[in-house]
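does this look right to u?? magnesium ion version
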Amino acid sequence: MDYTNIKCAILGSTGSVGTQAIDALTELGANITMLAAGKSFEKLLEQTKLCSPEIVATSDEACGEKLRAALAHTDIKIYSGKDAICRAIYDCDAKLIVHSISGMAGLPAALAAAETGARIAMANKEALIAAGHLIYARLEKSGGELIPVDSEHSAIFQCLCAQGAAHPSRQADSSRVRRILLTASGGPFFGWSSEQLDTVTPEMALAHPTWKMGPKITIDCATLMNKGFELIEACRLFGVDSDKVEVLVHRQSIIHSMVEYIDTSVIAQLSYPDMRDCVRFALTYPDRAPAGSPPLDFAKVGTLTFHEPDNEAFPLLNLARETWRRGGTAPASLIAADEEAVDAFLKAKIGFGDIARVVIAAMEKCPVYEADSEDPIYKAENEARIITNEIINKYAK
Ligand code: MG
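got this back:
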């Protein structure tokens, strides 16, 4: 298969996943026609020189001005400002859109991308968690599709390919799938008690053993909130109830997730952890392309271990399960409450153990609305931020 004619766009190109997406796509020789990012001018300029896209979009006006000056001698179109990324999505005519803008800020871009009919390689979990049903409604209309790039969901998607003809991203055939086994590294504080967790500092939490990522998601991995988000993400992506998704701690991060069928057969996806593999799969599916990454050496890995998660020390996992059951705008509130609590922890306003206490207390107070459009989702998000900050102030050191 020749990928050189496939127009690709990368949203959030200067972030950790975005950078790795450029690696994976250039390795395949794909045509990167649009890059979009926020304030990281130097990095965006460097990527622009490397990829020579037709359009570069930045949500930041000042970054746009600097890009215009630096690229004045080229015919690259620069879009800047609040709606720049969405305008660029509509104009760039990409067949593959890698969405790696992080946080709820990525929702408008996700909805726009879903309207274009392109394949979305989705690395933004917040938009899916808060508004996955709205994204799928748009994909239905446009004829587009979504392939998850989050490593666990890429794995589940690949395992679901074993169920037969149905497109795995739309629906896990619930009559055939018994459970989805979502694997978790367990984070840097696996085995720690609640009391020990209260001694964790931002520096300690930012040293993630396996994946190199931004600070917000690294903290979410340490509290297991990330796994809770991924549980909701799996429910959205594969059309299953949260009681069908089980979390399993697997310290080696070699199995990226598994699907158990009703005949007790379990299909797993294994590889060394590398986000580039997930991006490559999203582009090449249902085909496969050779990777530059090293093949799995089973004898060297030696042992794969599995543990049940400690729901007492890490209560955010069960909170996510409950939040999915509450439905409506509750998942959006959870994202916002967690963002505020993690931010407060990184600024040393609250302790590590307080993150879960604050988020649980906030979710008890957040009203839940029907999430039939973006407006109630944004309303719930904003209210959750206010409620959470009131609680943070009570906990503040
Ligand atoms: Mg993940």
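The mean pLDDT is 94. idk if thats expected tbh
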